[in-house]
Every structure is written in structure tokens, then in C-alpha cells.
Amino acid sequence: MSLREDQAQKEPLLSEAEEAASRIFALGPGEGEALWGDGLLATIKATKKQTDGRCTLVEILAPDGYGSGLHVHHREDEGFWIFEGELTFYVGDQTITARPGSFLFGPKDVPHAFTVDSGPARLLFVLSPAGLEDLFKEMGEPARALTLPPQPEAPPSEAEMQQMAVIAAQHGVEFLEPPPGQ
Fold it and tell me: Could you report the per-residue pLDDT of 2-41, keeping only the tens digit for each?
């Protein structure tokens, strides 16, 4: 028996309960990695590392009139829990009005979008399995304050939109045309 094998036999292994307990974490209001992107404030509340790949949670602050654009996730299901504001969701063939306390579920591979009808809106994205926080990090920038980002002077150029589509595709997200209501 090698020294390494002998040492491995002497080291206790964590039980499943101890392993799970080692992943316990808590974030208070305003805590989490805050990012600005696409006109939103996104605060990552739970990552794939923290949840052992089970889910990602991202708190979103979106301005009045915001529209996400029609897109589809090819890797994860997405839930939306509304805390503030009134929104219209387009999920598959359904149009759903959501108010504070509402929860909606959009399965992977089903196109969806939302607009903020009365805001700002605050909601929680619940994504399973985990990993989409990487897209938020790649497409966003660290927020300088826990507020909505400054609004850009001009909409993104066609080249910028194409670059965002490439990055999104690398994370299993596909932008679709046309956006709802157009």
C-alpha cells in the first residue's frame, strides 16, 4: 500500500449530510454580485458552485417600459417570482399578466419574453440547472450602485447585437425575432 492510499484510508470522508451542510450560505437584502447589463440591475443570489449545480437565482430590477426581447433557453427551465411592478409575460403561445406575488414557469426550449408595464419591477429569476449566472457576468459589468444603470444614449448597433447573440448562444440562449408586440 502506498503512503497516499494509507493516508486516504485514515482521512474520514464527509457524509452526504455533512457535504450538504458545508454548502449552507445566506445573503441579506442588497447582497450578492451586482451587475449592470441590458438596462437592468442583476444581483446574483445563488450560483452553480453554491447550489452544487442545482439552480441559479438572480434578482432583477427592471425599469418601467423595459422589454426583454423574445428568446429561448436550451439548457435550463426558468421561473419568475414577481416582488414589485406589473409585467406582461409571453411564454409559448400564452400571454400572462403578473403582479407582486405572482410566479410563472417557463420550461426550457419554450420561447419567452416579458415587458414591464408598471415599474420599476423587481423579480427573481429561478434557473435550473444552474450556470446561467456566467452569461450575466460575461454580458454585464460590475454595478457601481444598487440602482438601475444609466440609460445608454443609443440602442446597441447591429454589430453589438450580433456579438451579444454569439455570447448568448455559447450559454445555450437563442435570441428570436420578432420581439412580442411588434
Answer: 555 555 555 557 677 777 677 788 888 989 999 999 999 9
Give CA 176 to chain center in angstroms. Answer: 18
The C-alpha cell at 52 is 452544487
**Displacement of CA 101 from its chain's centroid (Å):** 19
Give pTM, 2 decimals: 0.85
- Please report where in the chains the cell 429561448 appears, as a residue: 72
Positive or negative: CA dihedral 118, 156, 48, 145: negative
For 109-135, b/e burial (b = at least 16 CB within 10 A) is: eebbbbbbbebbbbbbbbbbbbbbbeb
Q: Which domains does the chain have, with CATH numbers?
A: 35-147+157-175 (2.60.120.10)
